[in-house]
Amino acid sequence: MTDKQPYTAAPATAFRMRPSRVLRAIREGRVARMLKLNTPDPKVAEIFAAAQPDALWLCMEHVSTTHEQIENQIRAAKLYDVDTLVRVPRGSYSDYVRPLESDATGLIVPHVLNVEDARRVRDMTKFAPLGRRAVDGGNNDAQFTRVSFSDYLETANKERFVCHQIEDPEALEQVEAIAEVDGVDCLFFGPGDFSVALGIPGQLHHPDVVKARQRVADAARKNGKIAATVCGKDRIAEYVGIGYNFLSVGADVVALAQYADDLMAAFEKI
Predict the structure, then answer these.
(1) Widest CA span in the chain
(2) Adjacent-strand bridge partners of 259
(3) Which helix (H) or strand (E) holds 107?
(4) 188 strand-pairing partners
(5) Which of 2, 132, 179, 229 is 20–30 Å from 256 (CA)?
(6) How many CB atoms lie within 10 A of CB 170?
(7) Which residues contact 39 (CB under 8 A, 6 or more apart)?
């Protein structure tokens, strides 16, 4: 015999999906902060999460990160109550729902081009009646069937969000209409690709890019949507001033490259 109490599984109604830290910040009128990871190592995710951003940006568009690696990075971030947003490749609905089912807090969908495209993304990422997302409920996000079915559907639509990246001139021309779409949670301005499309690559503060940045923020905030973009730490106040309330302010590869270059440069003083 032992004095330990026997384990009793909690009833399903005791389990809830983890609420979004980013959405909590936005709803409270604060600016949400994000750091980007290009490396797939969960230890790097844990190091960054310990700094207490509101979210980590994980990428499957431009890097070779696998779904299993993403899942482990999400776990590492959740240790510190930090959200994760996965930038997905443009593909089938499975490319969108699998990160959400691994309990990513949101998605970043690149190159949303028009209203019809925005609606297609909405339909693949939101449950009915808002969209037509396929349902499973047996994965990390629903705590492996422990979250009740109705609670899962409702909370997933309220506490998970999708960023529609506006990074093409044709998308900018429809940005106000895109922002009006029910189920578009966030407009995310991508200045890099936008500058390339304009034929001014890398000129992130060219007047045409500046105007586009402002137009995206205006469209988002007018329609009660999140306005997001990338930002250097020296421009945080400026971007907040023009309406942005979700800013990605740095990346692991930048930090590592600068750190390594700085150390090697020390030898040049010998």
Answers:
(1) 77
(2) none
(3) strand 106-109
(4) 165, 228
(5) 229
(6) 10
(7) 252, 253, 256
3-state secondary structure labels for all residues of 204-269: CCCHHHHHHHHHHHHHHHHCCCEEEEECCHHHHHHHHHCCCCEEEEEEHHHHHHHHHHHHHHHHHH
What is the tally of helices (H) and strands (E) in the chain?
12, 8
| Euclidean distance between CA atoms 189 and 51, whole angstroms | 25
Name the 3-class secondary structure at 228: strand
One pLDDT digit (tens) per residue for the chain, 270 residues: 445 555 444 454 579 999 999 999 999 999 999 999 999 999 999 999 999 999 999 999 999 999 999 999 999 999 999 999 999 999 888 999 999 999 999 999 999 999 999 999 999 999 999 999 999 999 999 999 999 999 999 999 999 999 999 999 999 999 999 999 999 999 999 999 999 999 999 999 999 999 999 999 999 999 999 999 999 999 999 999 999 999 999 999 999 999 999 999 999 988
Per the structure block, which two tokens stand in for 17? 């999906």
Catalytic residue numbers, as ranges:
62
